[in-house]
From TrEMBL:
It holds the Pfam family PfkB. Residues 186-285 form the Carbohydrate kinase PfkB domain. Coiled coil: none annotated. One of its GO terms (molecular function) is kinase activity. The keyword Transferase applies. The lineage of its organism: Bacteria, Bacillati, Actinomycetota, Actinomycetes, Kitasatosporales. Keywords: Kinase, Transferase. This is Carbohydrate kinase PfkB domain-containing protein. The keyword Kinase applies. It comes from Streptomyces phaeofaciens. InterPro entries: Carboh/pur_kinase_PfkB_CS, PfkB_dom, Ribokinase-like.
Amino acid sequence: MDDAIDVLVLGGAGVDTIVRVPGLPLPYADSYMIDSGIHSRAGQTGDFVALGLTALGLRTHHLDFLGDDPEGDLVRALHEKHDIALTAVPQPLGTKRAVNLVGPDGRRLSLYDTSRAHPGDRFPEDTLRSLAGASRHAHVSLTQPCADALPVLRDTGVTLSTDLHDWDGENPYHEPFAHTADVVFLSAAALPDPEATMRRIAARGRARIVVATAGAAGAHLLADGELTHIPPAVPPAPVVDSNGAGDAFAAAFLYGLLGGEPPRRCAEFGAAAGAYACTVPATESAALSRDALLKAVPGGGRPS
């Protein structure tokens, strides 16, 4: 295991099958001809956060369940290609999978296969404690069984972040994550009042920073009780797919935070990385480099 880890990424390893469709919502029809092909590639939320962190020069370790199957081989190959440390706990039910329908404007609809996890799954506590104890920070995915790992992680003293994705502010599954993490990311897509939800997260939990991303409208940053709007970054190329934009945002934000940058600049880093992610086709896995990020968001110091 690593002697020193900047960020331990917990959960969110899997394979997506990408299908480009003529529009979303997809009108009912007996069949569609998919000229762009149907592609399977490694990369779910934890994979993309780990990829983004590694591209920015942070020592990253990813811990999750993987099956002894072709999907697991794809995930292992992705980590080997990008030199991301990976601890894979055997999963007899197989590696997590999803199907992403991607529209012409880059929006996506994800269909997650929940059959590849068991309610009794738990990360080995010794492994979890050892990795967390060697880490400066841990980013926890929503995937099962990460909720059960939260008390152990908190007990180690490591700071925590999580991404609630498109939480509606009501689903109780998300609450342990929202109320345990020091930094909370979420999408504003399903929130009728993002500020109210953000302030409720901060009031009920431990979060000192809450960020709600809003796509082309930018992001909302709550830090030290003050709400700030972060304008969107200009994508460096045409937008082709929004898949992974939130993960890229979180990775770049954490890069800034661990480098001692103020929350606003961290959010500007996140906006730039998220905009770049929208220019990467869903069939590929790529992340913004540190030099490119600092060029896109000039000024300030250089996080280590």
